[in-house]
Design a protein that fits this description.
186 residues; mainly alpha; Serine Threonine Protein Phosphatase 5, Tetratricopeptide repeat
Length: 186
């Protein structure tokens, strides 16, 4: 069993998208060809959704693509974390939480990312303690140092926000300061 024509064009489109050096003409043409050969090609729909959300900022179109991917193949695990992230960006937090709950039931999904996304939602709500709890859970299912370090940085950032909410302590004056203040007042 080899690659389908849709797979080949999808790979061509994906290869053409490379940050600032993207060849958008090639990417769009290849993606359109992939979807014309197979309108239900999940990787192509996923990539189209990513392009719509990340580069065109058309979340509704992106969400349509992601919903179609999930309807066609619930086991296409790549779709969940990206879809949830864009839902959060679009302030669709309740919808994102429902999708997180569902995604946890899918075999092979990245549970560390799902917990990080749960943390992200709670951070946006200002529930920093719950956010830290999700990060702790996420760290338990991480299997590379780079991503683990990312989680530690996330924890540090959230702890700084907690510190911002704490009332500032008054500086205790020492005996020397008190003596100087008495001399100045005389």
């Amino acid at each position: 069993m080899g690659l389908t024509i849709a797979d080949s064009y999808y790979l061509k489109a994906k290869g053409a998208i490379f940050g600032w050096f993207s060849d958008w003409n090639e990417a769009c043409e290849s993606l359109n060809y992939a979807l014309s050969y197979d309108e239900n090609h999940c990787p192509s729909l996923y990539l189209l959704g990513k392009i719509c959300a990340e580069y065109i900022y058309d979340y509704d179109k992106a969400f349509e693509c992601f919903d179609k991917v999930i309807a066609l193949d619930q086991d296409y695990v790549e779709v969940y974390t990206l879809y949830i992230k864009y839902l959060i960006w679009a302030d669709e937090n309740e919808r994102a939480e429902k999708l997180i709950d569902f995604a946890f039931t899918i075999k092979g999904v990245d549970t560390a990312k799902l917990n990080w996304l749960s943390s992200y939602i709670n951070e946006k709500r200002g529930d920093y303690k719950k956010s830290l709890k999700h990060l702790k859970t996420a760290k338990k299912s991480i299997y590379n140092d780079h991503y683990y370090d990312f989680m530690i940085d996330e924890e540090k950032r959230i702890k700084k926000k907690i510190d911002l909410d704490k009332p500032k302590k008054k500086k205790k004056s020492s005996k020397k300061d008190k003596a100087k203040n008495k001399k100045k007042s005389k």
